[in-house]
Amino acid sequence: RIIWASAAPVRLAVLKLQDGVNTPTSGEVERVSTPRDHYVIAVAGFAAPDSDTNLNTLAEKASLTVKGKPPVQAVTCTYRKIGNADVYFFRFLRSNLPIDEADHDVEFKSKFGQIELKHRFELRSMEYEGRLAL
Known about the structure:
By secondary structure, the protein is an alpha+beta fold. It is built from three helices and ten strands.
């Protein structure tokens, strides 16, 4: 499973899960709705890293591509166990790849050992409250 984890709706959903039955405060909602310095792509479904896994090497093998623009490499990769899921988070500097609705889609690529991942995100389906939520 590959998701655009820095998208405001995803971050709002995580906030609501963390708060449980409590309603998130307006400050919490504003905090998670504010764009960050990085786009974050989460990849779940691979095993936890072993002692030989170099997360920096995984970051070097991950990229975001917008048609007509050079690919941008991830600056970091981190791992986190969330419930029963092993999740890898790839971070890309927003300033290295400005994205707007006119770009139509963004492709994420990564390599886990011999497995090459590709996932295309259609930007028109990533709007939230009238703006692109990345």
